[in-house]
Design a protein that fits this description.
- By secondary structure, the chain is mainly alpha-helical.
- Helix content is about 45%, strand content about 0%.
- The chain has one domain.
- Keywords: Nucleus.
- It comes from Rhipidura dahli.
- It holds the Pfam family AROS.
- GO terms for molecular function: enzyme binding.
């Protein structure tokens, strides 16, 4: 809020019997800055309509503004929309979309799943081991 508007508002709230202060005391602009302030006030008028006139101004209703800014609950409409189409996307497509939306940093990547190794069975039987022992160590 500018100082001029604040001053005008205070003048409206003043009791009617009180006299106005002398112009020199009211402004309080005596000093080196007074000339600069006066120059700023005397700048060229802006192009466009004159804001002092009421012509072309539209009066806004406070009730209409309230109704415009009042939050609207879209829950029912959204539920109808969501429940209307029961198309379920393919799992490969959903995985691809999730991969694209995931960040590129290592912290955003899911941990890689390592396949569990199955215990490898031997191709030799117990009989083959006994036969090897007899031949190699000479144990009968």
């Amino acid at each position: 809020m500018s100082a001029a508007l604040l001053r005008r508002g205070l003048e409206l709230l003043e009791p009617p019997g009180r006299a106005k202060a002398p112009p020199g005391l009211e402004r309080g602009r005596a000093g080196p800055r007074a000339a600069g302030a006066a120059r700023r006030r005397k700048r060229a008028p802006e192009h466009g309509r004159n804001k002092a006139t009421i012509k072309g101004r539209v009066v806004k209703s406070a009730i209409e503004e309230y109704h415009k800014k009042k939050p609207v609950n879209h829950l029912r409409e959204n539920l109808k929309y969501m429940l209307k189409g029961r198309l379920v996307a393919d799992k490969a497509v959903t995985q691809q979309v999730l991969a694209q939306n995931r960040g590129r940093k290592s912290k955003d990547q899911p941990p890689e799943k390592t396949e569990k190794k199955k215990p490898e069975g031997t191709v030799f039987t117990e009989e083959d081991f006994r036969k090897f022992e007899r031949e190699y160590f000479g144990i009968p």
